[in-house]
Amino acid sequence: MPNMTVAAEKKALVFGLDDVLFPKKDYVLQVYYVFAHLLEYTETVPPAKDLIEFLKSAYTIHGEQGLFKRAAEVFGIDGKYQVHFDRLHLSAKLPLKLLLYKSVKDMMQAAHEDGKRIFILTGGNPTMQLNKLQHMEWEGLDRFVKVYFEEELISQQKEPLTHLLAENGLEARDVLHVHASDDRSAGTVGVDRLDIKQILTDLTVDADP
Q1: Helices (H) and strands (E) in the chain, counts
Q2: Where in the chain are the domains?
Q3: ∠ CA 168-21-130 to the nearest 5 degrees?
Q4: Per-residue pLDDT of the chain (209 residues; tens, 9 = 90+)
Q5: Half-sphere exposure of 140 (CA within 13 A, CB side)
Q6: Model-level pTM?
Q7: FRET partner for 137 with CA separation of 20 to 30 A, picked from 63, 96, 107, 120?
Q8: How many CB atoms lie within 10 A of CB 6?
Q9: Which residues contact 123 (CB under 8 A, 6 or more apart)?
């Protein structure tokens, strides 16, 4: 089992969400798919296929920042649709389930079978992150996972990982935090960390509908 030796002496595993449990782009590209078809249905133009291809390419090259504005300039999209674009990021009903990375799913299953506790600690907008969680294909693992939202805890003046440890009677030495490469959280509370790149063994597959 990939990197389970790292977690062998731990009582609990804490996972991030985006690009840890699944490829974030699998969510984002489906949001673009839903938006493009909504716009085509409402305005008849631009063709959904063309807008989807543009959004996918622009996202890959430039990321999410200013993406609606780029599309609006190219396709003449009315600015009033910005609110729909933004809202779909929070609550879109996706056409396809989000699939866990196989190696991460295997790690979580092995940890559960070994009696370890499993947590998810995710940053970002809690509404959007919850929507991602609800669209995931858990294969029963969700029954054993407890989720914490960093923004909610920070708004209550709580350090997220410190709060997670205290609420569950865990010491820092008991926990392994599996994180995305660009995640700098949890580094100051003494918890051992494992970059997700050291776990992943399967290739990312686009979830284009």
Answers
A1: 9, 7
A2: 4-22+100-198, 26-91
A3: 70
A4: 344 555 778 999 999 999 999 999 999 999 999 999 999 999 998 999 999 999 999 999 999 999 999 999 999 999 999 999 999 999 999 999 999 999 999 999 999 999 999 999 999 999 999 999 999 999 999 999 999 999 999 999 999 999 999 999 999 999 999 998 776 654 557 888 888 988 886 444 444 44
A5: 4
A6: 0.89
A7: 63
A8: 16
A9: 16, 129, 150, 151, 183, 185
Q: Could you tell me which residues come within 8 angstroms of residue 185 by beta carbon, excluding any fewer than 6 positions away?
A: 121, 123, 150, 160, 161, 179
- The two three-digit tokens of residue 52, written as one number: 């989807």
The CATH number of the structural domain formed by 4-22+100-198 is 3.40.50.1000
